[in-house]
Amino acid sequence: MILRILLIVISAIALGTVLFLLFSKMQKPWNDMTDKERKRKKILIASGTSVFLAGIVASLLLGKKK
Length: 66
Known about the structure:
The chain is mainly α. Helix content is about 75%, strand content about 0%.
C-alpha cells in the first residue's frame, strides 16, 4: 500500500514538472531559445512524461498481484 502511494506521489511530481515546463510564465518563449535549449526542454518534457506514465502503470500493475 505504501509503495502504491509512493508511486502515485512520484507520478504527480513528474506531471507537475512537465506542466511547469509547458505553461510557466518564467520560461523563455520557444522562438527566443537556442537549439541546445530547445533540445534540452524536449528531453525534459519527454522524460517527465515517461516517468509519469511509468509510475501510473507500475501502480496499476502492483494492485493486480493479488
